[in-house]
Design goal:
152 residues, mainly beta, Thiol Ester Dehydrase, Chain A, seven-stranded antiparallel sheet, 1 helix, 7 strands, HotDog_dom_sf, ApeP-like_dehydratase
Length: 152
Amino acid sequence: MKKARYDINIKNFLPHRPPMLMATVTPYLDQDSVVTHFEISENCIFLDSKGRLAEAGLIENAAQASTAIVGQSYFDDEDLEGSGNKLVGYISAIKKVEIKTLPRVNELLVTKAKLVSRYDTGTMSVCTIKSATFRNDDLIVDCTFNFLIHEV
């Protein structure tokens, strides 16, 4: 059982880089759940013409946060810099997505995800994860994803 990690730099554990990196701070991560933060900047590629984070950006934020739960199991406990990063993850299904509002530039999103199920086959994992994104404690996105994560 992996112990909880606090204040990790998630970019070390995701293949994404700006401008596609949609989760920038990870205050908490354990074997079943994660919490990430993302402050929407004006150079975000997912902004609509009104300066709001578009639906695709909200889904990408939730997906990146979610994959940290299973993805961390492919790293050694001592690997706090992500030097063993040889993972690729795919959204195999969006089972549910409810978007209640589109947040604006400079707003902070807090995304919380929880592992529902997981099946491992050697160097590959198939999992289902539920995710909720909040702005000022208000739920703005509710998602359930299936992911395929594997080593390359």
